[in-house]
Design goal:
- The chain has one helix and five strands; from the N terminus they run βββββα.
- 5% of the residues lie in helices and 29% in strands.
- A hairpin with a 5-residue loop joins strand 1 and strand 2.
- It has a three-stranded antiparallel β-sheet, with no helix packed on it. A two-stranded antiparallel sheet has the order 4-5.
- It is elongated, with a radius of gyration of 16 Å.
- The chain has 76 residues and is mainly beta.
- It has one domain: Rubrerythrin, domain 2 (Single Sheet).
- The relative contact order is 0.22.
């Protein structure tokens, strides 16, 4: 079950929703509006290179020290 990120066009809030089957959010958690769109989520990965060193990559370098569970949580 994937977690998708959404953006509310009415109150400018980003939020996450755990999708079960073909479900979608009933509305924005802040303003309850149905005027929202799904965002393109950033992906990251960990790769083992030659010699066993571990490298990681993400969509941006500004989140390196971020403690949020997703980019929607910190606004990046």
């Amino acid at each position: 079950m994937p977690i998708y990120e959404f953006h509310c066009e009415d109150c400018d809030t980003d939020f996450e929703y755990l999708v079960m089957g073909s479900g979608k959010p009933e509305g924005c958690p802040d303003c309850k509006s149905n005027n929202f769109r799904r965002l393109m989520s950033a992906c990251g990965f960990v790769s083992k290179g030659a010699g066993g060193q571990t490298t990681s990559a993400s969509a941006g370098t500004s989140c390196g020290g971020c403690a949020a569970s997703s980019c929607a949580g910190c606004g990046h």
